From TrEMBL:
InterPro entries: RNA_pol_sigma70_r4_t2, RNA_pol_sigma_r3/r4-like, WH-like_DNA-bd_sf. This is Sigma-70 family RNA polymerase sigma factor. It holds the Pfam family Sigma70_r4_2. It comes from Blautia intestinihominis. It comes from the Bacteria. Residues 82-132 form the RNA polymerase sigma factor 70 region 4 type domain.
Length: 145
């Protein structure tokens, strides 16, 4: 009788051992399937192309970072602080010519009509203004470095 109870105990242990091994094998198979699924359907953020990565977020743009100029009823927004600072140093006429020409893509003839000036005057204002802006911006960037 004693031998029978130890035999039963040994059988139960081996059955329990077998059930545990089967359960662990099943868990391994589930884990491998899950990892294969992730490998097929998921991509690391560091491996995303720039175009796809840019779709994942948006950037808020606030008016604090822009400068606004009023020119002949037009509201012109300048986002670059260095350009805005340089534009503020110009006379009003020269600033208006630059803003209308480069920010609203108006021709010299259109600007002359709007400002009641001669086209050649507009051309000269634009030419001199660009030279002044170039000098002002070069000095500003040299000072910042």
């Amino acid at each position: 009788m004693e031998q029978s109870s130890s035999w039963d105990e040994w059988t139960v242990r081996h059955q329990f051992d077998r059930i545990c091994k089967l359960a662990l094998k099943g868990e391994v198979i589930d884990y491998q399937r899950h990892m294969a699924y992730r490998q097929r359907h998921e991509v690391l953020l560091s491996e995303l192309p720039e175009k796809e990565l840019s779709k994942l977020f948006t950037m808020d743009k606030y008016n604090l970072e822009t400068h606004r100029f009023q020119v002949l009823g037009y509201d012109i927004e300048v986002k670059d602080a260095l350009i805005a600072e340089a534009l503020q140093t110009l006379t009003e006429k020269k600033r208006n010519v630059i803003l209308l020409s480069y920010f609203l893509d108006m021709s010299d003839a259109e600007i002359a009509r709007e400002m009641n000036l001669v086209r050649s005057t507009i051309h000269e204002h634009r030419k001199r203004s660009l030279e002044l802006l170039k000098n002002i911006m070069e000095v500003s960037t040299d000072e910042k470095e």
